[in-house]
Amino acid sequence: MKLRVKKGDTVKILAGKDKGKQGKVLRVLPKEGRVIVEGLNIIKRHTRPSQANPQGRIVEKPAPLAASNVMVVCPGCNLPTRTNISRDSGEAVRVCKRCQRSID
Questions:
Q1: 101 and 58 both lie in a single domain
Q2: 99 phi and psi angles, rounded to 5 deg
Q3: 33 CB contacts (<8 Å, ≥6 apart)?
Q4: Minimal CA–CA distance to 81: which of 96, 63, 65?
Q5: What is the CATH number of the domain that holds 40?
Q6: How many angstroms separate the CA atoms of 63 and 18, rounded?
Q7: 95 pairs with which residues across the strands?
């Protein structure tokens, strides 16, 4: 599945418990069709005691979201937008459909 989101993009969450919040994409998982967004969709994982961590602990980390539930935020108009691919001098560039400004 071709994703229109890249690592480092600012995205807005369209569905789920974090609906309406914005965050930066930390990782894109194209085979699963998911993205990991910084500070959103936080889950807790219990870790076993080890030599490095003799007590064990609860680790909070962001879980993947479905890529269909996020939308890229345009840096120009600062609104969530769909993207279009434009070819400039043989190079593909993502363009905001609202303001026609380059996102890359």
A1: no
A2: -110, 0
A3: 1, 3, 66, 67, 68
A4: 96
A5: 2.30.30.30
A6: 12
A7: 84, 102
Q: Which residue has the tokens 């879980």?
A: 63
pLDDT digits (tens, 9 = 90+) for 54-99: 999 999 999 999 999 999 999 989 999 999 888 878 888 899 998 8
Q: How far apart, in Å, are the Cα atoms of 28 and each of 24, 52, 57?
A: 11, 30, 27
52, 34: one domain: yes
Q: How far apart are CA 104 and CA 101, in angstroms?
A: 9
Enumerate residues 6+ apart whose C-beta is below 8 A from 78: none
Same domain, 66 and 26: yes
Q: Are residues 63 and 88 in the same domain?
A: no
Domain that holds residue 53: 1-73
With vertex at residue 62, the alpha carbon angle to CA 1 and CA 22, rounded to the nearest 5 degrees, is: 75
pLDDT digits (tens, 9 = 90+) for 12-31: 999 988 899 999 999 999 99
Instruction: Say what the pTM is.
Output: 0.82
Q: Residue 89, Cβ neighbours under 10 Å: how many?
A: 5
Please indicate, yes or no, whether residues 85 and 99 belong to a single structural domain of this protein: yes
